[in-house]
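Hi, here's the filled form for the chain we discussed.

Project: internal
Contact: R.S.
Residues: 623
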Amino acid sequence: MKTKRFLAGVMSLALMGTLAGCGNSEVQAPTDVSVTTAPNAGGDTADAGNTDDGGDSAGTGDSEGSETTAAAEERDLKAEFAELYGDEPITLNVFSTLANYNGIQAGWFGEVMKREFNVEMNIIPNTDGMLDTRMESGNLGDIVIIGAGGDYDRAVKEGMLYDWNDDDLLDNYGGYIKANMAQALENNANLSEAADGNHVVHGFGHNVASSIEEHEAFIYTMDVRWDLYKQLEYPSVKNIDEFFDLMVKMKEICPTDELGGETYAVSLWPDWDGDMVMYIKSFATCYWGYEGDMGLGHYNPDNGEYYYALDEGSPYLQSLKFFNKLYQAGLIDPDSMTQTYAEMSEKVKVGGTFFSIFDYAGSQLYNSEEHLNEGKAMYPLMPDDATPICAGMNVLGGNRIWAIGANTEYPELCMAIINYLCTPEGYLTYWYGPKDECWYYDDEGNTCFTELGEAAYKDRKGTMMPDEWGGASFNEGTFQANNTTWTRDARNPESANDTYNCENWVSRRASLNYDILNDWREFSNAYNAQEYMNSRDYKVLLGTSFSIASQSDELKVIWKQVTKQVTTSSWQAIYAKTDEEYDKIVADMIQKCNEYDPNGECKAYSLGEAEKRKALDDAVRNG
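And the returned structure, exactly as it came back:
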């Protein structure tokens, strides 16, 4: 590989521009990616300069910014890689701890990779201890997507990740990243230094922001069946009790879904459970604005207080009690403990539920063209006392890291692909499909959907892609590795003034016009969900450099026992038939957890992480 890398360096000396020029390429790229993003971790840091030894630099020195150079426009990466690697298609192993898919990337995104890079991607998820297996083998994969904290630290310490400044890899094949993500690269070098003492860039975190001045889009929107709310003549929803009453009333007027099945207030799924039951934890995040992805409990971003999940009156236990109340009223889908996210989604699509705390599991599933034309829809309705959370924009990137495996035979190709996904064309393609096939810029520079692109955005599963773009549904063709580069609410520098989020495109304002939507707009005095959420009280989780610290081997054992007990008992508590049964299950859960952790190490660890987070938050607030 040293010969190949030397050749790559020689070929690139005159081509130091970025892949941004792909925006003018005649080769089109495939469409959308269904990725759910979580709040970032990040913070303020100075840009790093280059160092003489090549291995220590964050690669954030002088650059040409985001300008597209003539060399970049003319650069034919496919031809370069043919000279480097030959003409045969190359299979890249993409190991992602976020993936829910195992196998060859198909559909439109697979076709994009073939057209742009002559690449076939083999997606490898972290199932059945795959991370440990690949670590032991000494080869994580070619492109690696891994969580910050323990997994990333381990990969760095064991030499599993490629140094992006080795042989000028970032300069030659990651120009757009270097020019536009300098702080995210430096932040990654800091994470690496904390792991093994070496200030080396191995990648960058997801959801990078172009500015720290705004927050990301809300995903906790409390979508409800607006047509039913309208039918009930818009009853008051001041608090959680009145929200419960609303769910009871909705079931009274709508006892069955479109297929004749029983309706419920909400349908849950266990696929995403971690240290706690995900939906219970996330309801507290949605309703009270407490961050739940930080230890065993919730963090208040306003004041830095931490609420341990097993403490009496904690947000987690309040949320758990609310869901048991729903269950006792016949308002929780009884399949919630055993079904998958996909199975839950099918129920939402046919009107089987009345609310979702997440937009992607509510309005984005239910609001099909057919439903909207029938006067049916899900739209946000926050109780008056709710203060949902949103993530502050973070120029340092989040906690899901893009990296390259140290033992890949194709580092140049891996870097070029990640770089492509950071360019405006690459990122719009990632979300919405091939340029000109699904989206384009008008004469004023506004980002616009084609008819196919609009249809795919509204109905991902029901919209079929052309055969030349892989066929199958738009949803089946999305990038299965499940990670983002920019935050979707970052500004697109190639557009007039759009972000990457199509919900805010100027071009779409006139095209969305349904009676049910106009009714919600009149009631909410807002044009869309984000405008509505911005008009209400909410909390912001600031963008800082925070990441969860690794645990000692002893704590890992205790943590696994305690969190398994919490998730198992929580599901049992949700399904309790009486208040007495519920109280006994919760009391037993707390007692067993205390037996596993008699010295309170899990709580101490969680509180320690909260203190670190608060210090970083205070630093951002104080400038």
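Let me know if anything looks off before we file it.
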